[in-house]
Design a protein that fits this description.
Blueprint lengths: L7 H18 L9 E2 L16 E2 L2 E2 L1 E2 L3 E3 L2 E3 L6 H21 L5 H12 L13 H19 L7 H8 L4 H18 L3 H7 L5 H9 L10
Parallel strand pairs: 1-4
Antiparallel strand pairs: 2-3, 5-6
Amino acid sequence: MVLLSASICGLRRLVSICEEYATSHGFVYNVDKSQVMVFGAGSKRYENIPPIKINNNTLQRVLKFKYLGHMLTPDLKDDEDIERERRALSVRANMLARRFARCTRDVKITLFRAYCTSFYTCSLWARYTQKAYSAFRIQYNNAFRVLLRLPRFCSASGMFAEAGVDCFYASMRKRCASLVRGVRESGNSILNMIAGRLDCIYVRRSCAMSGEVVQNWPL
Protein backbone atom coordinates (compact mmCIF):
# COMPACT_ATOMS: atom_id res chain seq x y z
CA MET A 1 0.00 0.00 0.00
CA VAL A 2 1.22 3.50 -0.85
CA LEU A 3 0.23 6.78 0.74
CA LEU A 4 0.92 9.97 -1.23
CA SER A 5 0.61 13.48 0.12
CA ALA A 6 1.80 16.95 -0.87
CA SER A 7 2.71 17.77 2.74
CA ILE A 8 3.96 16.15 5.94
CA CYS A 9 0.77 17.15 7.74
CA GLY A 10 -1.31 15.46 5.07
CA LEU A 11 0.81 12.31 5.25
CA ARG A 12 0.50 12.18 9.02
CA ARG A 13 -3.26 12.45 8.68
CA LEU A 14 -3.34 9.56 6.19
CA VAL A 15 -1.18 7.42 8.49
CA SER A 16 -3.50 8.23 11.38
CA ILE A 17 -6.51 7.04 9.38
CA CYS A 18 -4.67 3.80 8.60
CA GLU A 19 -3.83 3.29 12.27
CA GLU A 20 -7.45 3.80 13.28
CA TYR A 21 -8.59 1.30 10.66
CA ALA A 22 -5.97 -1.24 11.74
CA THR A 23 -6.96 -0.92 15.39
CA SER A 24 -10.65 -1.36 14.66
CA HIS A 25 -9.98 -4.47 12.55
CA GLY A 26 -7.49 -6.12 14.87
CA PHE A 27 -4.21 -5.93 12.99
CA VAL A 28 -0.97 -3.94 13.21
CA TYR A 29 1.20 -2.43 10.50
CA ASN A 30 4.73 -3.80 10.23
CA VAL A 31 6.99 -0.83 10.98
CA ASP A 32 10.09 -2.67 9.71
CA LYS A 33 8.52 -2.97 6.28
CA SER A 34 7.17 0.58 6.16
CA GLN A 35 9.33 3.41 4.86
CA VAL A 36 9.14 7.07 3.87
CA MET A 37 10.44 8.77 0.75
CA VAL A 38 10.39 12.53 0.20
CA PHE A 39 10.29 13.56 -3.45
CA GLY A 40 12.06 16.76 -4.45
CA ALA A 41 10.62 19.60 -6.51
CA GLY A 42 12.93 20.19 -9.44
CA SER A 43 16.40 20.73 -8.02
CA LYS A 44 15.03 21.44 -4.53
CA ARG A 45 15.66 18.82 -1.86
CA TYR A 46 14.23 18.54 1.64
CA GLU A 47 16.84 17.35 4.11
CA ASN A 48 15.11 17.98 7.44
CA ILE A 49 11.52 16.81 7.77
CA PRO A 50 9.41 16.03 10.84
CA PRO A 51 9.24 12.31 11.68
CA ILE A 52 6.45 10.11 10.41
CA LYS A 53 5.36 7.52 12.96
CA ILE A 54 3.28 4.37 13.00
CA ASN A 55 2.42 2.83 16.35
CA ASN A 56 4.73 5.44 17.95
CA ASN A 57 7.68 4.13 15.90
CA THR A 58 9.46 6.49 13.54
CA LEU A 59 9.53 5.27 9.97
CA GLN A 60 12.87 5.05 8.20
CA ARG A 61 13.46 7.55 5.41
CA VAL A 62 14.97 5.97 2.29
CA LEU A 63 16.60 7.31 -0.88
CA LYS A 64 15.44 4.47 -3.08
CA PHE A 65 12.59 2.00 -2.88
CA LYS A 66 11.47 -0.89 -5.05
CA TYR A 67 7.72 -0.67 -5.61
CA LEU A 68 5.98 -3.28 -7.78
CA GLY A 69 9.36 -4.11 -9.27
CA HIS A 70 10.21 -0.51 -10.21
CA MET A 71 12.97 1.43 -8.46
CA LEU A 72 11.84 4.83 -7.17
CA THR A 73 14.19 7.65 -6.13
CA PRO A 74 13.50 11.11 -4.65
CA ASP A 75 14.48 12.88 -7.89
CA LEU A 76 12.07 10.67 -9.91
CA LYS A 77 14.85 9.73 -12.32
CA ASP A 78 15.02 6.29 -13.85
CA ASP A 79 18.75 5.55 -13.79
CA GLU A 80 18.41 3.20 -10.80
CA ASP A 81 15.62 1.25 -12.48
CA ILE A 82 17.53 1.03 -15.75
CA GLU A 83 20.53 -0.32 -13.84
CA ARG A 84 18.27 -2.85 -12.09
CA GLU A 85 17.02 -4.09 -15.45
CA ARG A 86 20.53 -4.10 -16.95
CA ARG A 87 21.80 -6.35 -14.16
CA ALA A 88 18.79 -8.65 -14.45
CA LEU A 89 19.37 -8.93 -18.20
CA SER A 90 23.02 -9.79 -17.62
CA VAL A 91 22.09 -12.57 -15.19
CA ARG A 92 19.46 -14.04 -17.53
CA ALA A 93 21.75 -13.92 -20.58
CA ASN A 94 24.67 -15.56 -18.77
CA MET A 95 22.39 -18.28 -17.42
CA LEU A 96 21.04 -19.03 -20.90
CA ALA A 97 24.51 -19.05 -22.44
CA ARG A 98 25.74 -21.48 -19.80
CA ARG A 99 22.81 -23.88 -19.71
CA PHE A 100 21.98 -23.98 -23.40
CA ALA A 101 25.44 -23.74 -24.92
CA ARG A 102 24.92 -26.95 -26.94
CA CYS A 103 21.51 -25.98 -28.33
CA THR A 104 20.91 -25.02 -31.95
CA ARG A 105 20.93 -21.43 -33.14
CA ASP A 106 17.14 -21.40 -33.57
CA VAL A 107 16.60 -22.59 -30.00
CA LYS A 108 18.93 -19.90 -28.66
CA ILE A 109 17.11 -17.20 -30.63
CA THR A 110 13.78 -18.40 -29.25
CA LEU A 111 15.18 -18.34 -25.71
CA PHE A 112 16.54 -14.83 -26.24
CA ARG A 113 13.15 -13.57 -27.40
CA ALA A 114 11.46 -15.19 -24.41
CA TYR A 115 13.85 -14.14 -21.65
CA CYS A 116 15.86 -11.13 -22.83
CA THR A 117 13.47 -8.83 -24.69
CA SER A 118 10.86 -8.12 -22.00
CA PHE A 119 12.02 -5.10 -20.02
CA TYR A 120 9.82 -4.70 -16.97
CA THR A 121 8.37 -1.14 -16.63
CA CYS A 122 10.71 0.18 -19.35
CA SER A 123 7.77 2.08 -20.85
CA LEU A 124 7.84 4.32 -17.77
CA TRP A 125 11.44 5.43 -18.28
CA ALA A 126 11.19 9.12 -19.07
CA ARG A 127 13.94 10.83 -17.07
CA TYR A 128 17.37 9.26 -17.31
CA THR A 129 20.95 9.97 -18.33
CA GLN A 130 22.23 8.91 -21.72
CA LYS A 131 25.00 7.03 -19.93
CA ALA A 132 22.55 4.72 -18.14
CA TYR A 133 20.44 4.19 -21.27
CA SER A 134 23.48 3.42 -23.43
CA ALA A 135 24.83 0.96 -20.85
CA PHE A 136 21.55 -0.95 -21.02
CA ARG A 137 21.57 -0.95 -24.83
CA ILE A 138 25.14 -2.28 -24.87
CA GLN A 139 24.18 -5.01 -22.39
CA TYR A 140 21.30 -6.03 -24.64
CA ASN A 141 23.58 -6.29 -27.67
CA ASN A 142 26.26 -8.18 -25.74
CA ALA A 143 23.71 -10.60 -24.33
CA PHE A 144 22.77 -11.65 -27.86
CA ARG A 145 26.42 -11.97 -28.88
CA VAL A 146 27.27 -14.11 -25.87
CA LEU A 147 24.29 -16.42 -26.33
CA LEU A 148 25.01 -17.00 -30.03
CA ARG A 149 28.81 -16.89 -29.58
CA LEU A 150 29.25 -14.05 -32.06
CA PRO A 151 32.37 -11.88 -32.34
CA ARG A 152 32.50 -9.12 -29.74
CA PHE A 153 32.65 -6.27 -32.23
CA CYS A 154 30.28 -7.58 -34.90
CA SER A 155 27.58 -5.24 -36.18
CA ALA A 156 24.64 -5.09 -33.78
CA SER A 157 22.11 -4.10 -36.43
CA GLY A 158 23.43 -6.78 -38.77
CA MET A 159 23.25 -9.64 -36.28
CA PHE A 160 19.69 -8.79 -35.22
CA ALA A 161 18.54 -8.39 -38.83
CA GLU A 162 20.09 -11.72 -39.82
CA ALA A 163 18.45 -13.52 -36.89
CA GLY A 164 15.09 -11.81 -37.34
CA VAL A 165 15.17 -10.47 -33.77
CA ASP A 166 14.15 -6.98 -32.66
CA CYS A 167 17.09 -4.72 -31.95
CA PHE A 168 17.14 -2.69 -28.73
CA TYR A 169 15.38 0.34 -30.19
CA ALA A 170 12.69 -1.78 -31.87
CA SER A 171 11.99 -3.56 -28.58
CA MET A 172 11.65 -0.24 -26.75
CA ARG A 173 9.33 1.18 -29.43
CA LYS A 174 7.02 -1.84 -29.20
CA ARG A 175 6.75 -1.61 -25.45
CA CYS A 176 6.06 2.11 -25.50
CA ALA A 177 3.41 1.62 -28.17
CA SER A 178 1.85 -1.12 -26.06
CA LEU A 179 1.67 1.23 -23.05
CA VAL A 180 -0.04 3.98 -25.05
CA ARG A 181 -2.53 1.52 -26.55
CA GLY A 182 -3.31 -0.01 -23.16
CA VAL A 183 -3.87 3.35 -21.50
CA ARG A 184 -6.11 4.61 -24.29
CA GLU A 185 -8.20 1.44 -24.41
CA SER A 186 -8.66 1.20 -20.66
CA GLY A 187 -12.06 1.80 -19.12
CA ASN A 188 -10.48 3.33 -16.01
CA SER A 189 -11.39 7.02 -15.67
CA ILE A 190 -7.99 7.96 -14.24
CA LEU A 191 -6.13 6.31 -17.13
CA ASN A 192 -8.48 7.98 -19.61
CA MET A 193 -7.63 11.33 -18.07
CA ILE A 194 -3.89 10.59 -18.37
CA ALA A 195 -4.28 9.46 -21.99
CA GLY A 196 -5.81 12.81 -22.85
CA ARG A 197 -3.01 14.82 -21.26
CA LEU A 198 -0.49 15.43 -24.02
CA ASP A 199 1.68 17.30 -21.52
CA CYS A 200 2.12 14.10 -19.50
CA ILE A 201 5.79 13.17 -19.70
CA TYR A 202 5.09 9.43 -19.92
CA VAL A 203 2.46 9.65 -22.65
CA ARG A 204 4.58 12.12 -24.60
CA ARG A 205 7.70 9.99 -24.35
CA SER A 206 5.88 6.76 -25.24
CA CYS A 207 4.24 8.35 -28.27
CA ALA A 208 7.59 9.73 -29.41
CA MET A 209 9.31 6.36 -28.95
CA SER A 210 6.58 4.50 -30.82
CA GLY A 211 6.85 6.89 -33.76
CA GLU A 212 3.49 8.57 -33.26
CA VAL A 213 3.36 12.26 -34.21
CA VAL A 214 1.25 14.60 -32.12
CA GLN A 215 0.96 18.24 -33.01
CA ASN A 216 1.22 21.18 -30.62
CA TRP A 217 3.08 19.42 -27.84
CA PRO A 218 4.49 21.78 -25.22
CA LEU A 219 8.27 22.01 -25.36
